[in-house]
Design goal:
With about 550 residues, this protein is of the alpha/beta class. Helix content is about 35%, strand content about 20%. Helix 12 (about 310-325) links the parallel strand 12 (about 290-300) and strand 13 (about 325-335). The structure holds glutamine.
Amino acid sequence: MSNSTKYVFVTGGVTSSLGKGIISASLAKLLQSRGFSVTIQKLDPYINVDPGTLNPYEHGECFVTDDGAETDLDLGHYERFLNVPTSQANNVTTGKIYQSVIEKERRGEYLGKTVQIIPHITDEIKERIQILGKKGTHEFVITEIGGTVGDIESLPYIEAVRQLKWELGGNAMFIHLTLVPYLAASGELKTKPTQHSVKTLLEYGVQPDILVCRTEHHLSRELRNKIARFCNVDPDAVIESIDAKSIYEVPMLMKEEKLDDVVLRKLKMPSTVPPDLDNWATFLHKWGNPEKTVRIGLIGKYVELKDSYKSIAESFIHAGSSNQVKIDVRWIHSEKLNDENVGIMLDGLSGILVAPGFGSRGIEGKICAVKHAREYQIPFLGICLGMQCAVIEFARNVLNHKDAHTTEIDQTTKHPVIHIMDNQKNIVNKGGTMRLGAYPCKLSNGSIIKEAYGRTEISERHRHRFEFNNEYIAEFENAGMIASGINPEGGLVEIIELKDHPWFVGVQFHPEYKSTVANPHPIFNAFVKATVRISEPVKS
Ligand code: GLN
């Protein structure tokens, strides 16, 4: 199949943030729903080797794959749309490309040649794009090129895909995403920025086959014809992408616009089986017609930038749809919470989620939120650092170890209930060195968590250096906090829960990375169910 793998390159013009990731994921969904196997890849033009060392304020959440890659958050969208796991190969950065080229140069693999952007960097990019096609499992590889056409940083990528299109001939095509702005003063949609950005692409030797135009108003037939005429594309290859209420509506909109039909026609692929989005439509219907509203607090320190907790927010949408409830997520800054105001700040919540994180900022606020959830019997989910906070809170306020802490923050505590994992002790490098990716976990019978999953063996993705200190396990269990999920290989505690509480769970892993439209995550599903049980109807 490798010879016949079709490559779709998605570029962006005019401005960033037009949603190339969502357009790529929506096209992939449509092709998948016609029975094709599809994968999506993101090329990121920054020099970080991966986004793992980036502050979430810079680039949003860092998404983690099963094979332990720290990646761009767009990979989360790809998985949520397609329900197929991505891997290391699905996210390439300039840092990775240069690292690999420089390592090859040091090994003498370029046989004395001067190493240059063309051909060495571009060849490396081309190879990384084709790795996914060569696996032989995908009929389509959709490659999203980060940044905006014209950026200095994305030039080597545009050059690489230009060459690749030449080499692959009819097996490759270009989609260019642009903006058609609306001028309110004159009441007009303007095509000039699109024309200019296509001209820029043409200067680099790339002729787009399809233009997807982001717009706030419908594009008339006349306007589509005009864009087609100026940009050398077929009129039906000018696709309208009108602002949608939710990213999950975009596959439906792209279906109406026949984006998949045009792609299949350009690549000479059969289009006899129509896209089947029935399950997707059911998901949207249930989500759009909630029977109840529940209010859940998300306690974190990056709440000003909602992309920092992207996968958690999306998991709530999936679980909201499957429970047919609207989830009103209240984003609460952990730094602003303290013992005095916690009652007021968390008033009216039917559920409390304490978010993952690193470092000391806001941690005492998170611990206050845990205490509130524990004492007032409010359904609680702690994720990673959130779980660690639940352990610390229990040690301080139930076991009476007043100075209990994690050694991430207090290395001199007499009660290090959370401590560094043995194999993390001597690691100095920050990038890619945490406990990353999927690990198995065994659940205890009779636990809340076993009930949520309906089975005892699970696999979930991790991203942490610290863990529950097993020296304390008996003391915790005797007092009512039990370890209900254990890693079968090393005995690490992966899940804690409270016995005398309607629903109180802390997980060392990140369930949010595995929630998809087709498979809402069992933990989020069960958490939302628990919040519905205790909540009174709230007017939305
Ligand atoms: N900082 C904690 C650790 O490294 C938790 C990490 C997280 O929440 N992802 O263990």
